[in-house]
Amino acid sequence: MILVNTETISGKELEMLGLVKGSTIQSKNVGRDITQSFKTLVGGELKAYTDMMNEARALATKRMVAEAESLGADAIVNVRYASAAVMQGAAEVMAYGTAVKFK
Predict the structure, then answer these.
(1) Cα(68)–Cα(85) distance, rounded to whole angstroms?
(2) C-alpha–C-alpha distance, residues 4 and 7, integer Å
(3) Which of 25, 57, 78, 95 is most buried (CB neighbours < 10 A)?
(4) What is the DSSP string of the chain?
(5) Residue 16, exposed/middle/buried by CB under 10 A (0-12, 13-18, 19+)?
(6) pLDDT for 16-60, tens place per residue?
(7) How distant is the alpha carbon of residue 25 from its chain centre?
(8) Element (H, E) at 13
């Protein structure tokens, strides 16, 4: 499966199949949440949250690809990511794009 954030794929004629998306809501455990809150006092990267968001993006992407594959897609164009805080320590990540088939 080819994933691009452009409208076209060089050298390919595309047939659009439709919007596909994948999402997840992830949170860290309370113990990690407390240690990360202390980190905000001294500054620096909140590694546990960076890891959480990377895992969430990977899972959302995997779910988006699965939806595209169920449509018989060869690629997804215009791939985008969005995230929103659902509650303290939890975030939703959504991956979306347009599933296409090569002509």
Answers:
(1) 26
(2) 8
(3) 95
(4) -EE-SSS--TT--EEEEEEEEEEEEEE--HHHHHHHHHHHHH-S--HHHHHHHHHHHHHHHHHHHHHHHHTT-SEEEEEEEEEEEEETTEEEEEEEEEEEEE-
(5) exposed
(6) 999 999 999 988 765 555 555 555 556 677 787 788 889 999 999
(7) 11
(8) none
Give the 3-state secondary structure of residue 71: coil
Q: Rounded CA gap, 3 and 57, in Å?
A: 14
How large is the angle between the packed helices 47-70 and 30-42, nearest 10 degrees? 120
28: tokens are 């860290």
The span from the CA of 55 to the CA of 62, in Å, is 11
d(CA 45, CA 37): 11
